[in-house]
Design a protein that fits this description.
66 residues, mainly alpha, flat
Length: 66
């Protein structure tokens, strides 16, 4: 589906946020589930923040020489 009237969508989102109260518990559960999924997919760094830095450096060097 392509949104053609972006202003109407923006107004709808603003009104929806205004009517719905924030649910901290639900939001925390959603965040926790997304974080666990990111970990399982290997998209969140592990215990060692420098793990994989060599690969990142090699990629950066290659991209900078293009």
């Amino acid at each position: 589906m392509i949104i053609k009237d972006k202003e109407t969508l923006k107004d709808f989102e603003i009104e929806l946020r205004r009517r719905e109260a924030a649910d901290f518990e639900r939001n925390l559960k959603v965040f926790d589930a997304l974080y666990r999924e990111a970990q399982e997919l290997g998209r969140v760094p592990g215990d060692n923040p420098l793990e994989g830095i060599e690969t990142d450096i090699k990629m950066a060097e290659a991209l900078n020489h293009v």
